[in-house]
Structures
1.
Amino acid sequence: MGGTFDPIHHGHLVAASEVASEFELDEVIFVPTGQPWQKAERDVTAPEHRYLLTVIATAANPRFTVSRVDIDRGGPTFTIDTLRDFRHHYPEADLFFITGADAMAQIMSWKDVDELWELAHFVSVTRPGYVSEDFGRTDHISLMEIPAMAISSTDCRERVRDGKPVWYLVPDGVVQYIGKHRLYQDLSSADESSV
Ligand code: ATP
Ligand code: MG
């Protein structure tokens, strides 16, 4: 499951847990994205913070792990590179790529999607506020309805900045890590913070 995870929240964790159960996955690997070279729409928090937040949030689940491949590759993350790396590391594995409905729609808009289908089966989960597109008859994508969690990282960041609580939207350890490192206090300088 790829994501910016800035920060990781219970919507991500429920999606991973539901897909793991439905598809009887041995493991869910959370893959925080690399840091974009150039500033995109907003400054993304330093990769090490996002990596550690993801480790904290997933530590208690024996089937959840975190990969650094996209962070260590550097630069913006393309799903095709993530999947090629995983295919290389796990040549025998059945790979599934878990996304929310919004991310799946973006992936479908790329021009070289055919190569993706050879690398993994895609599972697109429902997400409040986004329409789950019907991609027609395809063996490459499964649509899955999951319990609706109207949570986004954007909303969590804005809540912290505005002094509102994020308790119960993110795991307790994530609340504590955000407080300890004073993340999201000033959203424009989030990427300047260091561990
Ligand atoms: P941001 O607001 O910064 O974009 P986000 O909440 O969308 O953050 P991402 O890290 O962008 O989180 O998302 C990673 C993956 O998790 C994407 O595939 C996204 O669609 C999915 N996802 C995020 N939140 C939910 C949710 N509440 N329910 C289902 N899927 C989700
Ligand atoms: Mg998002």
2.
Amino acid sequence: TQTGGTAEPKEFKPEFKDYQAVYNEIAKLLQEHDEYDDGSYGPVLLRLAWHASGTYDKESGTGGSNGATMRFAPESAHGANAGLINARNFLEPVKAKFPWISYSDLWILGGVCSIQEMLGPKVPYRPGRADRDMSSCTPDGRLPDASQGARHVRDIFYRMGFNDQEIVALAGAHALGRCHTQNSGFDGPWTFSPTVLTNDYYKLLLGSKWQWRKWDGPKQYEDKETKSLMMLPADIAFIEDKEFKKTVEKYAADNDLFFKDFSAVIVKLFELGVPFTDKAETYVFKNLDE
Ligand code: ZEM
């Protein structure tokens, strides 16, 4: 009905179908751009979502995915974020097509979509993140250092509020993607199928013989048999540490359990420090081929 000439334009309230449309657009672009790396932007999109979230500090409440402050220096220039410009640039055309979504929500949706499209479990998603300016950039050093061991890994993830089982479940993401010398200095993939999420990371940790790679780069492991796979010192910590190793064994033996726990813990990671309202609904997206 007509309410007079000065009525405000109706505010756009996105619903499930609108977020599903964003999901579908990301999934379509993932399929189209199979020229990247091992054939998918999925791993680097997941890493963007993780590095946006993993700056969280539970004591101060700072950091986390609410803000998308990696758009700005100094955070964009932190060593740990090298190469994530590829993921941010990949999502720019999606942001242009759906300008109503915040970068913070979009980056996390990119992670959710990547996990599902790389044949991982469903990852329930809640929108509600708001972008912040560069004054909310976190200090360098909040993300894990690959050259360190169990003690450091615990310090970093306990700061976010995770326990040992959750840390090991999160690490299963290293079934995906690879290390790039131009980003981290390290080199190579962890598994033979770096664009499909499986529990292979755990199986390979336990089932292969890991030896130091002899090369000029930073200290990393290679599998003795094929020398084509890698582990970081921080990965090997998961089999050197008795407590961590028990959980590695559970996930190596049971992919369904890994999927269930991975989904739960990645939702926790993606929601660290996000001030959702009571009204925030949880969405479970259909995969592109569903
Ligand atoms: Zn990663 N990760 N990560 N990680 N990560 C790399 C790549 C990827 C650590 C780490 O130092 C590195 C988690 C935990 C930890 C992914 C997801 C998740 C790389 C290589 C390094 C060095 C980067 C490069 O060179 O491009 C350490 C020390 C971790 C904790 C112990 C968690 C948690 C993740 C998600 C849940 C993914 C998907 C990649 C692959 C990125 C790509 O571009 O292929």
3.
Amino acid sequence: TPTSVTILPSGRSFPATGKDSILNEALAAGIPFPHSCTVGTCGTCKSRLISGKVREITDAAIALSSQELKDRYILPCQSLARGAVELDVADLADMPDHPLVHTDGEMVGKRGLTHDILEVTVRVDEPFEYSAGQYAELTVDGLSGPRSYSFATGAADRPKDEFTFFVRRTPGGEFTEWLFAEDRTGTRLGVVGPFGNLWLRPSAVPVLCVAGGSGLAPIKSILEAARDDDVRRDFVFVFGARSTRDLYCLEESAALAGSWGTSYTFVPALSEEAPDSGWSGARGMVTDVLAGLPTELLTSCDAYVCGPPAMVDAVEQQLRALRPEGNFFHADRFLDKK
Ligand code: FES
């Protein structure tokens, strides 16, 4: 018999049949429940069971500590509701509350950003709101599955019916090879959104942003929104790329400093740039750049990180080595889209 799951402290609730995971039932009801892997390994969906019973699909012990298990934490992506359930999902209290919209749209523009990254503009039939850092799923008829792309702008004056995305070419990937093969302007596509947990949590501590490759999109979006919302916090933004030909939006990223109320530091870093190329900026991996930042910053900041999984994992390890506890690390792992 269908019952419901109630989320505290917000008190929002949604119907639960117990036939699908609590996470999926929340998402189906349009609730932006925090999640990432959906298979019980990342711990992002972790919530405390206040009352009621759940049945585990897989053993939650992989992603939860023994203390968390004792404290009745569960993984909603791996739990079925058994009757009415109350869950404490602290992160959801401040979470942006945008209804999930399913609409269609049309590619109305494209611009090359680097040799393998395109900016694509999509005009949607039904305009919708998102928070900077979130993403949408795009589906093109005739191509398999939806692809997730982050909204690449967070400026307050952005159009509500036109979204830009940064798409990196994946050699051999069905979607991106199709997109890069010829001018696809005018193509119709399905758009569902917004999704995602990479929005700027309210706080006063410094913000560390780290982006790699096309992971720049949500970070740029968060920075633009912070500028336009006049967020009074110190920001450090480290952007990692291979060589100068992989750099883009450099002027936009640097120019943010001019309109910032507090301190804003932008560090582009190249990992494979030829020694004699004349590049005078930072060299090395983003983790090398972070190692040179004040420990005080690394142990007090909130971190927002987006890029290839190996980069995100390396940054998480580096920060957690300094600070094992705390909900300060927010990330989106960009998998190459086939
Ligand atoms: Fe990763 Fe549930 S979403 S553990």
4.
Amino acid sequence: AVPVITIDGPTASGKGTVAVLVAKKLGFHYLDSGVLYRLVAMKLVQAGEDGANEAAAVRAAESLDPQFGPEGQVLLEGVDVSADIRADGIGLQASRLAVHPAVRQALNVIQHRARRAPGLVADGRDMGTVVFPDAPLKVFLTASVQARAERRYKQLLEKGFSVKLEKILHDLQERDHRDAGRAIAPLKPAADAFWLDSAGLTIGETVEKVLAAWQQ
Ligand code: CDP
């Protein structure tokens, strides 16, 4: 089977950045599964709907046809939405629609298609537990809620969003709570997960630890 490294963890744990660098280093493909949930949220918001509307969310997920540009740009019906899908409100809606089993099923089909030679690094919430349970390396990346809120705050400021730290902290806790508490594919470490706390580590050090675990 094509090898997969899964990197799961809560919001703003640094999993996206780490996953991209590990993929680059190994020459593997990269899957940001959260982008798919964010794209469904974007479609709903554009249609004036809300993540709680299950029927609308399922329709949006089943008709999702994500396209990616040469530099990893995310396109929705030909429009570059790479920046817009990063908004905090979209992340929040994504976590609301991610509780619907039929939405997850539709997105899992797209995720399985990303498993191509020579290998894949996949980040998300359930990559190691549900989507790629046979992955030879399953990383669970965490950090304290405060450290993650500060990281997300800086990221959003850099992207030009106007945000408040308290609001970020509040939204992040709400999202963590929903992602860990849902009945289907809750955020949790796989039984055989490799735990990494990114709080005291630089990105480079975190990447090195994942690569070392992979080479073992
Ligand atoms: O970047 P951040 O960690 O804040 O979020 P994301 O990875 O882009 O995911 C956005 C939301 O999609 C999460 O809060 C989850 O509710 C959902 N998601 C999921 O349920 N399963 C995944 N594999 C990835 C994301």
